[in-house]
Predict the structure.
Amino acid sequence: MDRQTVGGTSRGRLRVDVRNEGGSAVVTPAGELDHHTADLLREPLEEAVSQGRARLVVDCSQLEFCDSTGLNVLLGARLKAEAVGGGVHLAAMRPVVARVFQITGAEAVFTVHDSLGSALAG
């Protein structure tokens, strides 16, 4: 498998790491995803798609909080990825984050996996 490290960025409450693994861009946000930190996730997701990585796997195992702004970032990434034949796969969501997706019905428009391994295998 290709495990090339691409990069990462941080702004206080959110750190985002990005790496390529196989045919996927694996994006790992750690911390709080909200109005103040959303661009830290939006930018690497959009960059991955623009670089030809249309299959985005978001490893949510370290995401402690996600508000509606964060949800909109992921929905926007899904639209861009699907426009080029890809998609967004969400992996290992903590219950507090999964609840946001359940309440809003957004879980129905994403492929959700219990673990990062299953997201990469799928």
Observations:
- The radius of gyration is 13 Å.
- Residues 68-83 form the longest helix (16 residues).
- Residues 1-6 have pLDDT under 50 and may be disordered.
- The chain is about 35% helix and 35% strand.
